[in-house]
Specification:
With 594 residues, the protein is an alpha+beta fold. The chain contains 19 helices and 16 strands. A four-stranded mixed beta sheet has the order 11-5-14-15. A four-stranded antiparallel beta sheet has the order 6-16-13-12, with no helix packed on it. A four-stranded antiparallel beta sheet has the order 7-8-9-10. Strand 12 and strand 13 form a beta hairpin. The longest helix has 40 residues.
Amino acid sequence: MKTKFKEIIQKAGEVLLRYPMVLVMALLASIGAVCMFENNRYQDIFFIFSKFTACCCIGISLMFALKMLSQRIGKSLILEIAGTVFLIGFYCILPSKEKDFTEVYGYIIAITAILSHLLVSFIAFLNKDRELRFWQYNKNLFINIFLTGIFTGVLTGGVELAILAVDKLFDFNFSDRLYTDTLYVLVIFGSCFIFLLFNEKGLDRLEKDGNYPVILKFFTQFVLIPLLFIYLVILYFYSLKILINWELPRGWVSYLILAYSIVGILALLLVHPLKEDHTKSWVRIFSKLFYFTIIPLIILLFTAIFTRILEYGYTEPRYFVLLLALWLLSVVIYFIISKRPTIKYIPISLFVFGVFALIFPYLNAFSVAKRSQKTELTKLLNENKIIVNGKINFQKKVTDTLVNEIANKFEFLAKRKQKDFLLNLVPDQDHKQLAADMESVDFWAVSDHIKNNFTHTDKTKPASEYERLTITSENKVIKIGDYTYMIDLNRYNKETREINGDHFNIIEKPDHNSVLKVVLNSSEEIDFTPAINQIIEANKNKTGTVRIPELSIENTLGKYHLKLILTSITREKNPYTKADNVYYDDAVLLVKEK
C-alpha cells in the first residue's frame, strides 16, 4: 500500500513538472468557473469571469499542443510565452461589457476552441515521414480522452456523494456552493490532471507503436460502416426524389451530407493502419469507394447551400457550412488524385480553412456576412420600391412578411455595428431613437422600431401565431411631486395597504377583462382597465416593444387623488381563444388627499 501511494505521488509530481502551463490553465479555468457562478447575480462580474474561463479553457488545449511541439523541437519557454501572449490578446479582443457580446464573439470563441484542439492533433507531426506515428499518437489521445471521461465521472460522483454523506450524517449543513464548486474543480482541473496522467511522458509515449485495438476494428466494421451505408442509401434516394420531382433540395440536407462525410472520414482514419494488411480486403475496398460515393452528394450539398445563399445571402453559419463543403471537396480531390496521400492532410487542411474563416482580410466569415446582408437589404428595399430619395418610405403598403425580413436584417446589421449604414436608410426623424437603441445594444428594439414604423401592413401570418405587444415607459425616474404616499404594486402581491385608517385593496383579474382595480374600504373602487386599454388601442397595429414618454394614469378615488405609474404593459393575442391577455409587471401608485 505504501509503495502504491509513493508511486501515485511520484507520477503526480512528474505531471506537475512536465505540464506546468497546462495545469495552470486548468486551475485558472476552474477558479474562473467557481467565481463565475458564485457571482451570477452580478452581470458585469459574471461576464468578466465567463470571458476569463473561456480563454483559460482554450489555453488548456493550446498549451498542451505547444508542449507536444516543444517535445519535438525544444524551445519550451519561447512557445509557452507565445501561447500566453496569444491568450492575453484573445481576452482583450472580447468586449468588456456583456451588452456588447453578440453571437459574433460566440462564433470566434467556438472556432478558436476547435482550432486549438486541431492543433493538438498535428502540430508535432509536420514532417512527412511520421504517418504511422501520427496515427498512433491520435489513436492514443482518443483512447485517453475516453478513459478520462470515465475516470472523471466516477471520481466526481464519488466525491460528491462523500460530501453529501458527511453533510447528512454529521449535520455539517454544507452550503450548496460546496457541491457546485467541487463539481467545477473536478470536471475542469481534475479531468485535465487525469488526462495528463494517462499521457505519461507525452509525445514519446503517445506515438509509440502498439497493437491495433480490436475494439476499434469491431466498432468501425460493425457499427460505423453499417450506419454510413444506411445514411448513403437515404441520401441517394433523396437525390433521386429531387431529380424525379425536379425540385430544389431542402436546407437541412446539407447537415446530413456533412455528417455522413465526417463520420466516413473518421471511419477511414480509425482503420487506416489496416489498409496495408492484405487479410483486411474490406478496408481497402471501403477506402477506395468512400470518396467516390461522396461526389454526387457534394453536388447536392453545394446545390442546397447556394439555394439558401442566393435567396437570403450569407450569414456566418451559412459561410461556415459553405467552408466545410469546400474543405470536404478538397479532401475528396486530394485523396482521389494524390498518389501517396497522407491522413495528416485532414486536420491540417481543416485548421487552415478555420484560420482563413476567422482572420483572412475581406474574405473572413464576418466581413462576408456584413457585406452580403447589406447588399440583400438594399436589394430588398429597391425591388419592392420602398426607397424614396435614398430613404425608406414607411408609408408604403407592404406585407408583414416583407416587414419582418427588413427588420431582421436591420437587427443583424445592428449587432455587427453597422450604425451609419442603417441610419442612412431611415428618415431623419428616426435617427435619434434608432441610434439610441443601437448604442444601448437593444437589438430587439431596433427590429421592433422598423416593424412598427410601417403604417400600412397587410397581415399574411398564419392565424396560429401569437402576437405580443409591450409598451414601455422611457421615463425611468419617478417624480413624486406633491404626492404624500407611494404604494408599490406587484402582480404577485395582493396585500391590503392602509393609509390613515383607509384600506386599499389591489385587484387584478385578467381572465375577467380587468387588468387592475383599486378598491377603497370595500365600498368605492376605480378601474384602471379602460385607460390601459386606450393605451393599447393607440398602438394596436404595432408588435414587439414600443416606447412612449411616460406610462401613467391619473384618477380620483373617494377623498384621494391617485396616479398610477407603470413600467410596462403587455398584450398577448391568443389565436386559439381569440382573447387578449393584458397585464403589467411592476408599477407604483402615488396617493395624496384632495
